[in-house]
Amino acid sequence: MNSYAYTLLIPLIPLFVFVFVGMAEDKLKGKLGGLIGTAGLGIGTFLSYYTAYKYFIADHVAGTGYTSFKAVEVTWLHLTDKLTINLGVLIDPISVMMLVVITTVSFMVHIYSLGYMEGERGFARFYAFLSLFSFSMLGLVLATNLFQMYIFWELVGVSSFLLIGYYYEKPSAFSAAKKAFIVTRFADLGFLIGILMLSFNTGTFDFQTLTDPHGLAIASTGGAVFMGLSVITWALIFIFIGGAGKSAMFPLHIWLPDAMEGPTPVSALIHAATMVVAGVYLVARLFPVYAQGGPVALEVVAWVGAFTSLFAAVIATTQTDIKRVLAFSTMSQIGYMMLSLGVSGYGGEEGLGFMASNFHLFTHAMFKALLFLGAGAVIHAVHSNDMNEMGGLRKFLPITHLTFLIACLTIAGIPPFSGFFSKDEILVAAFHSNKILFGIEYFVAGLTAFYMFRLYYNIFWGHDRHYHHTPHEAPLVMTVPLMILAFGSIFSGFLPFHNLVTSDGLGFESHIDWMIAIPSILAGVVGIAVATVMYKTKNALPEKLSKSFSFFYRWAFHKFYIDEVYLFVTKKIIFNYISRPVAWFDRHIVDGTMNGIAGMVQFASVSIRGLQTGRVQQYGFVFLGGVVALVLIFVYLF
Amino acid sequence: MNILTLFIVIPVLTVIGILFTKDLKQSRLVSAIGMTAQLILSGILVYLYMTERSAGNMAPMLFTFDVLWFPALNIHYAVGVDGISVAMIALTGVVVFAGIFASWNMEFLSREFFISLILLATGVFGFFISLDLFTMFLFYEIAVIPMYLLIGIWGSGPKEYSAMKLTIMLMGGSALLMVGILGIYFYSVPEGGQLTFNVLEIAKHQIPVEMQRFLFPFTFIGFGILGALFPFHTWSPDGHASAPTAVSMLHAGVLMKLGGYGAFRVAIYLMPEAAHEQAWIFIILTTISVVYGAFGAIFQKDLKYINAYSSVSHCGLVLFAVLMMNQSAFTGAVIQMISHGLMTALFFALIGMIYGRTHTRMINEMGGLMKVIPFLGVVYVIAGLASLGLPGFSGFVAEMTIFFGAFEHIDVFHRVATILAVSSIVITAVYILRVVGILLMGPIKDHHFDHLPDANWYERLSTITLVVGITFIGVVPIWLSDMINFSLAPLMEKLASIQLPGM
Amino acid sequence: MIDNIPLNSFLVISTLMFFIGIYGFLIRRNLITMLMSIELILNSVNINFVVFNKFLYPNLLHGHFFSLIVIAVAASEAAVAIAIIINIYRNFKSIDVDNLDQMKF
Predict the structure, then answer these.
(1) pLDDT digits (tens, 9 = 90+) for A408-451
(2) Closest CA to A89 of A109, A65, A120, A68
(3) Fewest CB within a 10 Å sphere: which of A602, B155, B464, C45?
(4) Domain ranges within chain B, ordered by starting residue
(5) What is the pLDDT, as a whole number, of residue C1?
(6) Quick check: A605 contacting C, CB < 8 Å?
(7) Where are the domains of chain C?
(8) CA A458 to CA B330: how far, in whole Å?
């Protein structure tokens, strides 16, 4: 199978680009840095498509399942006697699918940014960071083992940090970057502990060994139990915390809305299409372990996913910053994916949820990237993020308008756009597993249609507004990616995912269950209808509604005050009640003790130095007294 | 001549050479030549060591050389290296080299400065090559004494106070150490044999367990003070804050490593039984060091204080790993020493360079420096990321190896300690990013800083050397970990062979 | 004639001189006087040397030599001491020992 060794180039080319562009940043005039980055990623995209073709079609023997194998692997470090960290490239259905997703979106973003970032200070730096991100993300999905994944997981985190903080002179941008990094790092702590527990108990990091359905890796844990749950369940829950942090699941979601401070293409690439689904990918990657080793952990995944999707959708209906609406929408959609994994079983038809999750991941990457890039084009034209300052833009931005509409219809789940198919599979999977979860998701589907069209109408319809300078359509370099992604959003729903990406590598028959599909379309249509009534033309209805639900509206508008809670805990409690006392304790108690010892020595010396008067005659007296005393002693005592 | 002896001869020759120089230009040139030679020699040593090992030389120590120096007490000048000492020597070579270039413009009493600095380096090199406890101790003292002068004369702030505090606390450590070493000497061989200071000789026999119980705390705390063991770490913030740049680099980068190295080579290696019994006390202390240092760093305002507390945390991790007493943890400890050595040297170098430009070290007086001094800013960010354990840099490798090693203990006590130590990586991220944010990002706070010059060639040389070291270990750690692993074999055998009480 | 005087008389004299010297040395504040007191002490010792030589070993001269050495030493000592005193006077405009307590702590 070493005919796949070339896949190593897919992550390595961006790495070289990063090193080269990063080092030569000052010397790359104009758009040169961007062009180098785009060209590098172009090659990567080509290689990814070739790999997908080769893996799914050319090398595939009809009637057999898709196998997973390592294209390359080298030893990186011997950790303990048993554990070795390897770096390599793992080829299997989900990694190949992710390759396609990442390179496609990343390539589009690279092209788009040539227009969007034009004239920015540090243009080459932007491309260096984008390349670093592409390298890390590709390394993450191609990881052959848990630890390699963790390595790239961290690298992805740092490139996200660097890109969010791209406008580093803006304090808000840097603090958003910092927040993103620290929150995800906190979650990574859970991931690391999970890895420690899992690898200690199974003696391996390797995905193939861990997820081998016939393997003994999980069985060898001996069923050790801690607080009512098996160790393996705890490990999986901890690992999920890591995934939840990256994927902005409640309650670790707080960084994602702020991350919108970064340039819009970055939001499209990292915070919509690729990095934030890393958590989903992680659970999917370890899915056999979850399915067999920790059903409880899987239940946690499902409920966290469901709750987040509802929670984020509610908040999204109230936000006015268009990027934030999209950010909450992303959270909500990732919640769908998590839920879908959570309700899935392993193998065959049981694995519908697994397939649906990956399917949705794929389609979501297309339409969400499209939405963000579309929003970028809007922001580029109006120089504002606030939807209250927009309206009637459909005349000025025809291409953006059309592609944005396609994306909105896709996310709302209207056939024949791709979102319909993937969301439908998720709803079916949820319906067969847990009716409450199904109910939540069904409601969220309607809500999604509502808030997306609220956004759409507010930007492109509403009352016509007078702009300082007439907004104009973005240049071709920006609209072409929009059109390509729109194409993907429309047609990617027809891909036979149930044959390609399944939990056990074997395809199964899947068809649309109209008993569920029709109500879900209805929900979407109702959502759109309500939005149309409220927002198509300016009227007083939204105002009235928000007044009558003012309490609830205020809570949702302030994102249920989760940020404030975090701020309270970190700023007030950790900073004031832990760090400050520690600093005080160190200076006054520990150091005070040391100084105290020194002080005691000094005190002792001060109290005896009085004898040293400097007066010769006093010394003489003492001397004489001493002599006399000695004489007396020697004479009378001996 | 034995290659190891060259490590002492070259610095001594350099010192003599500096004596004949007239001004700053000459003396820094001589020191640069000397320390470059030393760096090259370190490289050659690593290479020779690797070839010897791959040629199948299985001796525990290579390049050994032994002369009787003081017959009455059977003190030898005995040198020899294994993978661990080779790694530490290479680290010292790099840090000293970078240190010389970081103090390229030491105008005040430059000759004396370079002499003291190189004398300090001599002590460190001597310490790492010694096999004889007495000469080891001797070199340790040689390394500590110039410290006093370097801080007291060329320092800043309350320099006399800090220098005094540092020296006295370290001397207190040496006093404890002296007790430990003499105790080991008197029980080095079974009744009636010729007493010896040679580590390898002593390791062949078992020191009576009752004596170990008594001597282990002395030795461990003695070295622990140098390794900033809580609560004996307070010399570190004050000392580092007052020391001139190169001295901070050398001190945090190398001298603090003598503590970890000594604790490992002397305390654990020679007294494993007692180490095993008493480890829990010190594990508690080191866990406190790790977490406490990190929390302490969050609140500081002075760049050097932040870094000093961060050193307390990172060096705590070294001792923590040493006490875990298994192969991975030991490997991790050594990698952590090297990694922290390079990282913290880089930090102090940068702080010195920034201070040289802004004349303040208070973070709230600075801001937006990334725009003015992009080179230093970028390197600072790299150092920060390395410090918070980003993959691709050495810190990550070290921390992971330590955590996995520590996690091999399955009892609740070790688990809790490990998880607490692991949690320090988040706190580290918090204080590093806080500093980076305030210092480098945002708008420029003070218009005096609008036109600061970026790094000179010697500053670039100094920092790039260290960055290359950090990245190299971070990207290809396997050669280092294998080199260390192999050298741990004698120790692991000894640990496996002893009858651990209560096991 | 000396044979008629008993040993005790000499010893009493020298003891008196010795203690007068000690007294002077400890009580007087003037450096010159203190120097003189030291001379008294030295001379009381000289007397002892000579007297004991005479009474115990009449045919030997060791005690005489000793007192000669002491006289020589005392002379040089006086020279040095007076030089010091002059210097002190130049610096402090006083030769009162109570003012000379810089040698403390």
Answers:
(1) 888 888 877 888 888 888 888 888 887 888 888 888 888 888 88
(2) A68
(3) A602
(4) 6-496
(5) 60
(6) no
(7) 29-97
(8) 62
Contact list, C22 vs chain A (CB under 8 Å): 624
The continuous run of DSSP H or E covering A179 comes out as helix A171-202
Which chains reach chain A with 3 or more Cβ–Cβ distances below 8 angstroms? B, C
Q: Tell me if A624 and C26 make a contact (CB, 8 A cut-off).
A: yes
Per residue in C25-79, pLDDT tens?
888 888 899 999 999 999 999 999 999 988 888 888 888 999 999 999 999 999 9
Q: What is the pLDDT of residue C43?
A: 92
A178 CB within 8 Å of a chain B CB: yes
Interface test with A, best of C95, C99, C101, C102 (most A CBs within 10 A): C101
Does domain C29-97 bear CATH number 1.10.287.3510? yes
Q: Which residues contact B497 (CB under 8 A, 6 or more apart)?
A: none
On whether any CB of chain C is under 8 Å from the CB of A470, the answer is no
Q: The whole model's pTM is what? A: 0.84
Q: A176 to chain B: nearest residue by CA?
A: B437
Q: C28 exposed, middle or buried (CB, 10 Å; 0-12, 13-18, 19+)?
A: middle
**Nearest residue of chain C to residue A610 (CA atoms):** C105
pLDDT score for A213: 65
* The pair of three-digit structure tokens given for residue A60, joined into one six-digit string: 């595939």
Whole-number mean pLDDT of chain B?
A: 85
Pairwise CA distance, residues B450 & B488, whole Å: 53
CA B426 → CA A206, A586, B94, B422, distances in Å?
26, 21, 29, 8
* SS3 (DSSP) at A229: strand
Q: Is the pLDDT of residue B501 over 50?
A: no
Cα separation, B11 vs B34, whole angstroms: 7
* CB contact A616 to C (< 8 Å): yes
Which of A605, A607, A615 to probe by mutation at the C interface, max C CB count within 10 Å? A615
**B328-349 pLDDT tens trace:** 888 888 999 999 999 989 988 8
Q: Report the alpha-carbon distance of residue A37 to residue A439 in Å, rounded.
A: 45
**CB contact (8 A) between residue A196 and residue B422:** yes
- On whether the CB atoms of residues A380 and A460 are closer than 8 A, the answer is no
Chain B residues whose CB is inside 8 A of the A195 CB are none
The reported pLDDT for the residue numbered A225 is 61
